[in-house]
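Thought: the user wants the 3D structure for the chain below. I'll pass the sequence to the structure tool as-is, report back what it returns, then summarize two notable features.
Action: structure_tool
Action Input:
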Amino acid sequence: MDNNLEKILEPIDKLVELNINHFDKLIDAQKKAAEQYAKVTRERMQQAQEIRDPEALARFVTDQMALAQSSYENMVASSRSLFESLTGYNAEVIQLFQESTQDIQDEVQKALKEIHKN
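Observation:
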């Protein structure tokens, strides 16, 4: 019976591991993005403090607009990457369930037969 139970619970263990790996990747990506955003913000604040004339202000505003465009492009790329990651994760979960459904049913039937023998 213990062997049957282990076989039945095996897909759950795989799903837990899959979830942990997936969420670790997501958390790591978010942490890196937040660290980069904080770094850029600190740099930009320092540059803004150094503005002393209209030409410097014009350069800062132009740079800020370019930075905003770049940030937008990075956000789009990040969203695309997240979508691909979620799609891959979903495919792995579906595959895990498809592979394990019949195995679980077989093991449950074996366990029930053993119970009825005793």
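Final Answer: Structure generated. The helical segments are 2-49, 54-117. The chain has one domain: 2-117.
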